[in-house]
Amino acid sequence: MITIIYSTHKDENYNKKFKQHLLESVDLKNVQILEYQNNNQYSLAQIYNSGITESNYDIVVCCHNDIKLEKGWGKKLLRDFEENLDFGILGKAGSCYFPKSGVYWENMHNTMVGHVYHQPEGQPKWISKYSAKLPKPIPVVTLDGLFLSFNKNKIKHTFDETIGKFHFYDHPFCLSNFLDGVKLGVTFSFDITHQSVGQPNHEFYNSKITFLEKYGQFLPIVIYPEIYIPRIQRKPIKIDGKVAIIIPHKDNFSLLKKCILSYFDNCDETIFDIFVADTGSSKLEKKAIKNFIFNYSNIKLIEYDYYNFAKINNDVVKNHLFNEHTYILFSNNDIELLNDVIYGMLKIHKTIPAVGTVGCRLHFKNKLIQHDGVIIVSDKENKIQMHHSGINSHYNFQNQIKKVPITTGALMMVYRKVFEKLNYFNESYTECFEDVEFNLKCLINGYTNYLDGNLVSYHYESQTRNLNYDKNERVIEDYKKTLSPFISNNFNKLQKFILSI
């Protein structure tokens, strides 16, 4: 069922142990192992091509001889190919981007994919997590040669023997097939441990020059992510009231309509009411909104003649909600839900004690990560910076519930009593950071903020909103005059939530 090919320069005892490990861990009866003794006289491309010629089975694995594989990996790999027929090549680490430099890990944190354990002899085991661990292969443009598997009937090219000896044998194979339409992916169905740490050497850089001479014309290559959208299974949970969704809005009815419809398409409309807080749309826009919401009993339009995020949201909570509104979901009008975010957020509130805010994974229009929680970092001088976790990455998020210092007010749920107890948003802010301060107040008062990476939405913010000089000035002023003093005054209480750099 599987042919395994590897090159070795080790002694007979080492090779015997490695072969035994492969036979015991693969958990298949029909396995062909092709071991090639290679004391620097052959390139890996030559070895692997010879193995392909001699292979008895359609599924071929080319791997290093210093790896350990999880028990049953062979069955899992076969299932990967059987259940994902569009893939021709699968590996354990790769990248969605190949830069002009020829070094595929150049933008590692944003574009690499996979989970690989490392355990050199005499050292503790650690893991390189380049991306989320998903239940299906993630498409990439290239794969690391540590472990390459493929259906030999689907590949268009074998290994290029003209480039590298022990480096750049993998990327020409991957790129040539990718360019001719073969789909490559990283699988997470089994674990792999690398017992050494590869380092670039003289041969690496010489091979890179040859590689770029041949493939540089095609670089850079990038494929944008396929958004991972889990199906949220609704199970009965006791909900003590309804959710009030508050959406500030001005002059982009098509965006607002898309946002609202995504709530009705993905969530149980019997447990929420929507409050559109219009902040000065044209008469024509307001007429369109009124005509649209006419047929919805759970949408209310509230009109304001000014815009201030904190003041408007506070006013809606204080003066327009009813007693039945137990939870508040703050939502921008440039949000589009992709699954049942409301149920997932309510579940966290109902199953975990002392919840502050709850957020979800947000994607830009181009499908890159916009938000996977906000992290706070400080330098030696205690200068604070905040960063969106995973921003502009392809798959650098966690598809699980995690504690975070801050969730974004673009889509954030809070228990109404907590919002009121902590005295609402600070209305001193003119442009932003009121949501940041509120999250920090939650931490200071013993609440925990959460983000569920299985809850997914688009956030079109940076794709649609133009920053101008005045706006930037207001952002800087909000930070200097209001947020920074708040953090300084509460630094001792917040210190355990801040990462040092």
Descriptive notes:
The protein has 501 residues and is an alpha/beta fold. It has two domains: 2-222, Spore Coat Polysaccharide Biosynthesis Protein SpsA, Chain A, CATH 3.90.550; 242-500, Spore Coat Polysaccharide Biosynthesis Protein SpsA, Chain A (Alpha-Beta Complex). Helices cover 32% and strands 27% of the residues. It has 15 helices and 28 strands. Strands 16, 17, 18, 19, 20, 21, 22, 25, 26 and 27 form a ten-stranded mixed β-sheet that branches. The longest helix has 21 residues, at 469-489. The two termini are 50 Å apart. The relative contact order is 0.10.
Q: What's the N-to-C terminus distance?
A: 50 Å
Total number of beta strands: 28
CATH topology of the largest domain, anyone?
Answer: Spore Coat Polysaccharide Biosynthesis Protein SpsA, Chain A
Helical stretch count? 15
Assigned CATH superfamily of the largest domain: Spore Coat Polysaccharide Biosynthesis Protein SpsA, Chain A
List segments where confidence is low: pLDDT < 50 over at least 5 consecutive residues.
462-467
Strand % is 25-35%
Going by CATH, the architecture of the largest domain would be Alpha-Beta Complex
Major sheet? 10 strands, mixed
Mean pLDDT reading: 93
Structure class: alpha/beta
Helix content: 25-40%
| Assembly state | single chain
CATH class of the largest domain: Alpha Beta
- Rg estimate, integer Å: 27 Å
Shape: elongated
Number of domains: 2
